[in-house]
Amino acid sequence: MSGTPKVRVVRVRLDGQDDDAGAVAELLAQLLPELSDGRVQAGEISRPYQNRRGPGARRYVELYLLDDSPGRDADQPRNSHRSIQ
């Protein structure tokens, strides 16, 4: 095997009032790489889209999940669980 990490794309939808979804998207982009020991990187953050039904807007964030250990069992945790306080 080449040792090149597998990259999986996860698209996350955030929904909120005004631009709360945008603020949370920016926080995710800043914090996830450190919280995941570099396993999750943020990509594009979409422009706001007005909700079709109801108030508020939504944003989409592309996250890239890097898996650099292809022999690891998918059910086995990579490192200890961290909770956000």
Residue windows where pLDDT falls under 50 for at least 5 positions: 79-85
Termini gap: 39 Å
Helix content: 10-25%
- Give the DSSP E fraction (strand runs of 2 or more residues): 35-45%
Please tell me how large the radius of gyration is: 16 Å
Biggest β-sheet, characterized?
Answer: 4 strands, antiparallel
Shape: elongated
Count of distinct strands: 4
Question: What string gives the helices and strands in order?
Answer: EHEEE
Which class best fits the helix and strand makeup?
Answer: alpha+beta
Overall pLDDT, averaged? 83
Please give the count of helices.
Answer: 1
Describe the structure.
By secondary structure, the chain is α+β, with helices and mostly antiparallel strands. It has a domain at 10-67. The protein has one helix at 20-35, and strands spanning 6-16, 40-45, 49-50, 57-67. Strands 1, 2, 3 and 4 form a four-stranded antiparallel β-sheet that branches. A hairpin with a 6-residue loop joins β3 (49-50) and β4. The longest helix has 16 residues, at 20-35. The termini are far apart. The model is unreliable at 79-85 (pLDDT under 50).
Question: Helices, strands, pairings?
Answer:
Blueprint: E1 6-16, H1 20-35, E2 40-45, E3 49-50, E4 57-67
Antiparallel strand pairs: 1-4, 2-4, 3-4
